[in-house]
Design a protein that fits this description.
Blueprint lengths: L2 H11 L1 H7 L1 H13 L8 H22 L6 H18 L9 H4 L3 H23 L5 H11 L18 H13 L5 H12 L9 H20 L9 H16 L2
Length: 248
C-alpha cells in the first residue's frame, strides 16, 4: 500500500490518525505563512493548535469534497493553506485550484526535493567549519526551529556524561520546544553547562548564539551574497529536508 492509499484509508476510517500523520506538513505550511507575514505574529505552536482544532472540525467536509483525482497530500496542503489564510487573515481567498493546477508532476517534485537535499548538505558542511562548537550550534538551531535533538547530538563536548545522561539532556532540550525563546535559552544553558568545563549564563549563550548564527548565514549566503538565507528560512530548509528524508 503506497502513501496515498494509506492517506485515503485514514481519511475514511480514522481521520484523527490522518491528522497526526500530517503534522510535519501542517507545521511547514504554518511556518512558511508566518515567516512571510501572512499570519499573526504569534508562537507557531499556538497557531498549530488553532489550525489542528479547525482541521479536526473540517475533516468530515474534507472527506466528502476530496475527488480522488489528485494525490491527497497535494489536495490537503492546499486545504491547510487556504484554511490558514481564511481563518487568520480574514480576507477573501481565491477558489481552490482544480487538481490539474496544483498537482505537481513527479519530475518537478523530484527536482524540488533534489534542491532541498543539496542545500541541506551544504548547510551540514557549513556546520563542520565551526569545529568543536558545531554540536552546540546544531542543538541550538534545532531547538529554535522546534526540531527534536537526539542523544548523539550531545557528543564531542568537553565532557561526556554517558549515554543515559545524554538521553536525559536530549529530553530536556526537546521539552523546551514548546516554550518561548528566552526559556529555550535557559534550557540550553543548563544542558550545555553539564557538558562544558566553563559554564555559560543564558545571556552569554545568547550572545554566542547570535554571533555564530550570523557567521552561519554568511557561509550559506556567500560574500558577496549569492543566496538570501535568513535564520527562519534555515528552519524551513531543515524541516523540509528531514521530512523528505523520513518519507522516502
Amino acid at each position: 500500500m503506497d502513501n496515498n492509499d494509506t492517506d485515503i484509508r485514514f481519511l475514511r476510517d480514522d481521520p484523527g490518525k490522518l491528522l497526526v500523520r500530517y503534522q510535519p506538513v501542517i507545521r511547514i505550511i504554518v511556518k512558511n505563512l508566518a515567516y512571510q507575514g501572512y499570519l499573526p505574529k504569534r508562537d507557531v505552536n499556538d497557531l498549530m493548535q488553532d489550525v489542528n482544532r479547525k482541521l479536526l472540525e473540517r475533516l468530515p467536509r474534507i472527506r466528502d469534497q476530496y475527488n480522488y483525482k489528485s494525490k491527497f497530500k497535494t489536495y490537503f496542503s492546499v486545504v491547510v493553506r487556504n484554511l490558514c489564510l481564511e481563518e487568520f487573515r480574514k480576507v477573501r481567498i481565491v477558489a481552490e485550484p482544480q487538481a490539474e493546477v496544483y498537482e505537481q508532476t513527479s519530475q518537478e517534485s523530484a527536482t524540488d526535493q533534489l534542491t532541498i537535499r543539496q542545500e541541506y548538505e551544504r548547510l551540514q558542511r557549513a556546520f563542520r567549519l565551526f569545529g568543536h562548537e558545531r554540536n552546540a550550534l546544531w542543538i541550538t538551531l534545532r531547538c529554535f526551529a522546534d526540531l527534536e535533538v537526539v542523544a548523539g547530538d550531545f557528543l564531542d563536548f568537553d565532557l561526556d556524561p554517558g549515554e543515559e545522561k545524554r538521553n536525559e539532556l536530549a529530553t530536556q532540550v526537546n521539552d523546551a520546544n514548546q516554550l518561548q525563546k528566552r526559556e529555550k535559552m535557559d534550557a540550553l544553558s543548563s544542558a550545555f553547562n553539564q557538558l562544558e568545563r566553563k559554564p555559560r549564563t543564558p545571556d552569554a549563550l545568547r550572545k554566542w548564539t547570535s554571533s555564530r548564527l550570523d557567521e552561519l548565514l554568511v557561509l550559506m549566503n556567500g560574500k558577496p551574497p549569492r543566496s538570501a538565507y535568513t535564520i527562519e528560512i534555515l528552519y524551513i530548509l531543515m524541516e523540509k529536508a528531514e521530512y523528505h528524508e523520513n518519507n522516502e
